[in-house]
Amino acid sequence: MPAYSTEQTMSPVTPSILRRPLATLLLLGLLAGPAGAADCQVSPARAIVDRILDLRPADATRLVDAWAAQRPDDPMVDFYRALTVLGEAYVDEYAPREPYWQRALGHLKRAIARAGGDREEAELTPRQALVVGMAESFRGLILLARGNKLQAYQAAWRGRNMLEDLVGSHPELADAYVVLGIYEYFTGSAPSAERRKLRLAGMDGDAALGVSYLEQAVEQAPVMAPEAARLLLMEVKGDETESCRYVPLAREMARRYPHNRPLQLLARVKALECRVAREEGQPVDEPLPLAIHDGCGGGLIMTRQP
Questions:
Q1: Number of other CB atoms surrounding residue 126 within 10 Å
Q2: Residue ranges covered by each domain of the chain
């Protein structure tokens, strides 16, 4: 989906998609994959995420509309419509954020309601639990950006707990690792005062575990893998030894999303930082060979009715 700490941005766990600086969002028949991808078929959900990351929210909206025409009551449609709204917010860089947040929150609330979010977790199907968990987590991020901290942490915590249980019993639903990574990293790396409050409430996270979840999502999540990659590149703050760690990942993201100029710039910056660190004799990690899941033949649970 954040840094997200109050000392660096608006508030702890504030996603860059909800701010104006250099960053991106982050996500009927089967549709073509991203630029340069192998010839394959991807789910409608992945096609939507690809277009949002390529900074083409209008194209993403058309795909959501086509999906909704076939499945008007599908809660997953509402979830991805919320993501397209956040994509519009980034492209419309200088417009007020609140109208976009209101629209996105409305879609997320509908997704939760349609998926049975008012019922006990044990009563939900795996797909319904996935929708509720992801929608609650993104709702928490928006609420936190607006300054509603208590509501935000409660929503994000509920989403995290639901998805943690889900991947434990259904490891094939690897898209859940993105939300788990967001929660663990950004609560685990929050300012010390915020972490103390979270710890007292039993809601603190583990930043290293969050990074591990996101790296796992890059390779295993059929729909949200590109967003996991974006988070690692644009939001996770490593130390100087990690200058080279994500250079191949940055290069691949720039190749996949040619309309995303921030990703093009980031790939060059990452490569330059790595080269300078090596020339200066700094100890650096070796590049991590993460292979972004191409979405081929995956994510079908995202498009089926409960």
A1: 16
A2: 16-302
The residues, any chain, with a CB within 8 Å of residue 125's CB and separated by 6 or more, are 306
Structure confidence by residue, pLDDT tens digits, 59-86: 999 999 999 999 999 999 999 999 999 9
Backbone φ, ψ for residue 42 (5° rounding): -120, 160
Summarize pLDDT for 91-113 with one digit per residue, the tens. 998 899 999 999 999 999 999 99
* Model confidence pLDDT, tens digit, residues 258-286: 999 999 999 999 999 999 999 999 888 89
